[in-house]
Amino acid sequence: MKTNLSDQSLGEVHESIDTTGNRKGWRKIFSFIGPAYLVSVGYMDPGNWATDLAGGSKYGFTLIWVLLASNLMAILLQSLSARLGIVRGRDLAQANRESFPRHINFILWILAEIAIAATDLAEVLGMAIGIQLLFGFPLIVGVSITVLDTFLLLYLQRLGMRKIEAFIIALIGIIGVSFLVNIILANPSLHDVLSGFIPSLPNAKDLYLAKGNLGPIPQETALYLAIGMIGATVMPHNLYLHSALIQTRKIKRTDEGIKEALKWSVIDSSIALNIAFLINAAILILAATVFFNTGRTDVGEIKQAHQLLSPVLGSGIASTLFAIALIASGQSSTITGTMSGQIVMEGYLRLRINPLMRRLITRLVAIIPAIVFILMTGENNIDQLLIFSQVILSIQLGFAIIPLIHFVSDKKTMKGFAIKMPVQILAWLMAFLLIALNSKMIFDEIADYFESGSAIGIKISIIMGLLLFFGLMIYVLIFPLLKAKHSNASIAMHPEANPIPNINLPVYRKIAIALDFSDDDYKLISNAIGQAGTAKEFVLVHIVETAAAKLHGTETADYETEKDRERLELIIQQMKQLGYEAKGVLGFNETAKEIIRIVKAENADMLVIGAHGHTGIKDFIYGSTINAVRHELKIPVFIVNL
Predict the structure, then answer these.
(1) Cα angle for residues 489, 428, 438 (degrees, 5° grid)
(2) Residue 67 CA: distances (Å) to CA of 63, 72, 73, 289
């Protein structure tokens, strides 16, 4: 882990795709197209499947309009997110960090991480269910297998941004073709489909009586499912993601260049998100045709849908395509979820950690609750957890949308590219509608819980949590409007430039050198002498890593330890012949801890240590020593690439 001092979002691929060349026609268009497709996979992840299937099987075609409304919201919000990245060169997390006080930023970071964890939970469960349906593995085994996609992501990151985009688009194609075939097999009524575009939130009992449907009345209200569908469609982490991904395009920083980039970002978002809408609508229409119209309104789970598709449609390929599309959906979403996590952590905290470590942490945070839930409740209720994860996302939308609208409306920072008043009004109406729907759902759920007779302590805790939740929402809403009065509270990326003061060159009296007794030791010693200046005293450090050393520590007297002492003494004698004072110290057991202990005990002014340039898995395994050492020591650490 290290502090990220760069202003660049996704620094490894920042402006890695050049749009400023002399390309024309399709080549020019394709240089801009791409970021929205990575964003769009979040709009068709397994969480969407659970809400779409539940909405279609329980309420027929009546909630298609919710998907359409969600899609229109998504296009507007993603366009605003891209605008922020293009004009200001900031992702949403960076913009928040520059605008809000430190403690508020920390809370917003926690909320963003919760949203990413909820997203990843949906991806884990969706992929695990797909693996189970396709290969017959137990669900817990499928959940465990999802850890392996971490290494696929690591490989794709090394290939570059264009390869990642191509991979994602290929997975979207697999999902689209799979549902196109199933829709053709289902042959839904066009009249019923079109009727679903008329806004309504029907009462389940009245709907079932009107349709003559004999299926069981669903427990979930249409509002609960509608909010889940909105949460599954318009997701907070996608707003962070798009504002960073759009910066992978190098554009001309002129008014004309920015206008061109904005135009293509809107086109890119519209095409990609409409594809996502068609896939979501296909899932809902498939569920409405195959299950609701046949009285199978109890089908609200992905596994049930898989089992019944082929018998109802009369084709064995229907269920197989369903499972393949589910795996493709989860796999594509997991890549963008990891990138969102990187953006959020670097933007809010300015911390960068190993991408593999970041992915493993994110995945374990999702896997552990999934496994606990499966062990406690069994596999039959897993779709309830999927829908609940999407409701969590919907609840947190306000904390991403409100700052975003503030930022792109600010004429001071956006100059002539701030959004116009009609767009501002539309964006704020949409934000308040989402917050109102979420608030109603929260109060309904809490009212039902209170009626069940919960303990007074729990009720008080819930009320306090609600007050904090809405208090933070109001603060985020009004703070940018009052920012002039709080100018000292904001956190700038860089302090103001000041004249360079008188420079006092450091003097090193004693330099420690960490040796591993390889052919590279003399390179380390040469670099240490080069840094020494007037220093003549060196401490040569070597850590004995034998099994005996780990067990007996300084009492170790095995053959390897004796040989290490002899070699250390030989190097000391050679340095003394060159006119330098040198002493040797052997450490035992854990390498990093021993180096830290010895350097502190010897009061060294600098440590010289070697890095062997490991990559991939080796970097994850071997690269922890240097990081651990330099974070614990308060003296300069000079790292020599060997």
Answers:
(1) 90
(2) 7, 9, 10, 17
**CATH code of the domain in which 72 resides:** 1.20.1740
Q: Does 44 map to a domain?
A: no
Our count of domains for the chain comes to 2
Nearest to 629 by CA among 600, 595, 604, 605: 595
CATH code for the domain of 529: 3.40.50.620
Report mean pLDDT in 10-residue bins for the chain, 642 residues: 57 78 76 85 75 84 91 92 92 91 90 82 79 82 75 69 83 86 86 89 74 64 77 77 90 89 92 90 88 71 67 72 82 77 83 67 70 72 67 78 93 90 93 79 71 75 85 89 53 53 79 88 89 83 76 68 87 89 88 90 92 52 66 88 79
Residues 453 and 587 placed together within one structural domain of the fold: no
Boundaries of domain holding 78: 2-23+49-489
What is the distance of C-alpha 249 from the center of its chain? 20
Distance CA 550, CA 544 (A): 8
Q: For helices 382-395 and 355-377, what crossing angle results, to 10°? A: 130
Asked if 76 and 430 count as a contact pair (C-beta separation under 8 A), the reply is yes
Task: Tokens 């949409």: give the residue.
Answer: 430
